[in-house]
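Let's practice the habit of predicting before peeking. Look at the sequence and jot down your guess about where helices and strands might fall. Then scroll down.
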Amino acid sequence: MTHLDITSEVPHDSQCLTEMIKQLSKNDLFLADLGYFDTEFLKKINEHNFFISRIKTNLKLYKGVSESYSIYDEIDTVLQLLQKFIVYAGK
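Done guessing? Here is the structure:
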């Protein structure tokens, strides 16, 4: 099923996400330009679906190093993307 929603830039993305998630069937792809998002919504989508969204270069992502001590290392997203691009372009 294809569904398209075009909204104004006024409402926060998270206000629309709950309704959008309800419309997804299993294994649907959710494609959105999320300027702001809640990671809990992305986890919910990821339970039975796939999603693609842009990320801003100033977004801070972290990977857990130790759950028992809540220690996280920051992921350099720009560096990660550049490394993937260089590997891909070199093939």
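How did you do? The longest strand covers residues 61-66.
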